[in-house]
Amino acid sequence: MSDVGTVLVTGATGTVGSTLVSLLAARGVAVRALSRRGLPPEAMAKGIDAAKVDLRDAQSMGDALGGVQRLFLATPLEEDMAAVADRVVEQARRAGVAQVVRLSAFGAGGGASTGLAAIHAQTEESLRRSGIPWVFLRPNAFMQNTIGQFAGSIRRYGSFRAPQGSGRVSVIDARDIAAVAACLLTQSPPVSGCFDLTGPQALSNDDMAAVLARVLGRDIRYFDTEPGETRATLLAQGLSVWLTDIVMELYDLSAHGGAARVSSDVAQVLGRAPTSFEAFVADHADAFR
Ligand SMILES: NC(=O)c1ccc[n+]([C@@H]2O[C@H](COP(=O)([O-])OP(=O)(O)OC[C@H]3O[C@@H](n4cnc5c(N)ncnc54)[C@H](OP(=O)(O)O)[C@@H]3O)[C@@H](O)[C@H]2O)c1
After folding, report:
1. pTM score, two decimals?
2. Assigned architecture for domain 6-139+173-197
3. CATH classification number, 145-168+200-261+269-288, choose in 3.60.21.10, 2.40.30.170, 3.90.180.10, 3.90.25.10
4. Which of 101, 151, 194, 258 is deepest in the core (most CB within 10 A)?
């Protein structure tokens, strides 16, 4: 077993957390993997203790933090996210946690240009005030979003739609975020710092369509849409008004080049280049076929 003590991973079945749990277990770290529904049996491995806990349940969260040295804090994208995170930070402080690695968001550090960045900035501020050594991971949009948002349309029509014009985004593979988190959670003594996490280049949706076409070996097109049309579609799909506003704001930011900056932080932490979109699509080709 590693000497960093027990690491509590919240969002343990999520896009970042699920990979992080595996990476930490592979390093011999004692992992407490927290989510409401628990880990699927195939994800269980030596050193992993699955905790079925709701982040909003103060009593159960207090129990889950018992004996924990490090915390990876990911909170679901819901309207009360800042309040939920603030409560967990306070509980972590009382439990004597030695480091919190916070899954924040791109832009949370610099004047918070979107509502989502502002919410994450609020939690960053709570962590700064807590006195716990902190790490802020500020990733740009995940490449994995393309599976959730576009893969169905790509499979059916060979095309996808968004109101993003030719705006480019330095999308990141969430597996790289997990790798950075695993690295920073296992350094002794615990480190603090901010890390802007992006992929190796900024891509427009036309660029992505060209990569998808090349890797999948079929014609794939991107069609620009009116924001109003996308907004109506998201609401019709059952997204809350709050989440729809967040998503539309991110599309607007992307369309106007506000998410195109490329950072070298992934390479600095991992000692290798971040995963390209081409490699990501190759690894997930079945999802798009
Ligand atoms: N997607 C992006 O492009 C992007 C970019 C930058 C930052 N982020 C940030 O990433 C965070 C989300 O991370 P993710 O995408 O890895 O997660 P995710 O895939 O959305 O998964 C959410 C995780 O949280 C758990 N969960 C949800 N509600 C819970 C609750 N009440 N109590 C305990 N666990 C709960 C879920 O498991 P159960 O359902 O079983 O509880 C699951 O493990 C958000 O804060 C978002 O702002 C996302």
Report:
1. 0.97
2. 3-Layer(aba) Sandwich (3.40)
3. 3.90.25.10
4. 101
